[in-house]
Amino acid sequence: MIKYPQIIKSLFLCLILVFSSMIHAEKVSPNHNGINYPIGLKNWRVISTSFRTDNKTQRVILGNSIAIKASRAGKTKPWPKGSILAKLVWKNSQHPKWDAAIVPGEFVHSEVMIKDTEKYKTTGGWGYARWIGLSQQPYGKNKSFAQTCLSCHTKAKDSDFVFTMPAKIP
Amino acid sequence: MIKYPQIIKSLFLCLILVFSSMIHAEKVSPNHNGINYPIGLKNWRVISTSFRTDNKTQRVILGNSIAIKASRAGKTKPWPKGSILAKLVWKNSQHPKWDAAIVPGEFVHSEVMIKDTEKYKTTGGWGYARWIGLSQQPYGKNKSFAQTCLSCHTKAKDSDFVFTMPAKIP
């Protein structure tokens, strides 16, 4: 039974943080408000999942290192500056061999929320962005699209405009 | 528009692999078949999600570096030796501010499948393990529990006993 020291864990998390911040190549066009797609996003850790009964979709919610640290410490009211929450959303699909299992079908979109009270003060302290489909086309026609995001997220003002409630993970 | 070289990405993934393999502390009891809980598991990357309409649960499916590499390359028939697939499962819960959103409530269990055709030849080439609840109690009363897993997973024999179909992620 080997117990590795805490320093190794910290080093590991630190390396993820440093390298994640380096790995954001620029293959996808930015949103109309200038927000770039964080390419390392699909390697981020899980905060939660959810599915919606109205539009028949399911999603996973990921976080960058700042968001993961905050969510695991329960310090999300407010989320700290630099937090990025990301959703990957799929249409529901029936599993071919398990009738009761509903699995991800067509990819719908990626979306992010970036916390920066000053930079995004016109949209409640969060910068919003969304890219449609596997080809990751920027959402909306001009930068006013983010007001649409805000109008919905205002329902969650009590939880810093965030609907996601971090899932309990042992 | 800076393009970071592929070597940085490779180094990053390699570091995750090396450190992940080091970080498996021993806080949780092994299953009756001797399989230990991979403590780094909650930091693993996402392969897919799903929800079940029968037992009202939702889950995220994560993979260790070997499994992630295989799933992203589409090389999962069969999954390579050393692949570990992990599920984190929650009871469904109604989002308090969004009627159509079903979010993770009570944590149900973690479970893993470890691919090793020789080591786990009596259970179809996969070692199965499950830990119940946030306290992560080993599942089952003796090592025969894995036959229960196998009897169900045999339905997915055509896909190397794995139900999970990797989600499309851009």
How are the secondary structure elements laid out?
The structure is a homodimer of 170-residue chains.
Chain A: H1 6-22, E1 45-52, E2 57-63, H2 65-73, E3 84-94, E4 101-115, E5 126-132, E6 137-138, H3 145-153
Antiparallel strand pairs in A: 1-2, 2-3, 3-4, 4-5, 5-6
How many strands, which pairing sense, and closed or not: the largest β-sheet of chain A?
Answer: 6 strands, antiparallel
Give the SSE string of chain A: HEEHEEEEH
Straight-line N-to-C gap of chain A:
20 Å
Count of strand segments of chain A: 6
**Stretches of chain A where pLDDT falls below 50 for ≥5 residues?**
none
Supply the CATH superfamily name of chain A. Cytochrome P460
CATH-defined architecture of chain A: 3-Layer(bba) Sandwich
CATH domain class name of chain A:
Alpha Beta
Query: How many distinct folded domains of chain A?
Result: 1
- Provide mean pLDDT of chain A, rounded: 90
Shape of chain A: globular
Record keyword descriptors for this entry.
170 residues, alpha+beta, globular
Outline the structure in words.
2 copies of one chain form a homodimer. The first copy, chain A, has 3 helices and 6 strands, in the order H-E-E-H-E-E-E-E-H. Chain A is α+β, with helices and mostly antiparallel strands. Chain A has a single domain, classed as Cytochrome P460 (Chalcone isomerase, 3-Layer(bba) Sandwich), CATH 3.50.70.20. A 6-stranded antiparallel beta sheet of chain A has the order 1-2-3-4-5-6. The relative contact order of chain A is 0.16. The mean pLDDT of chain A is 90.
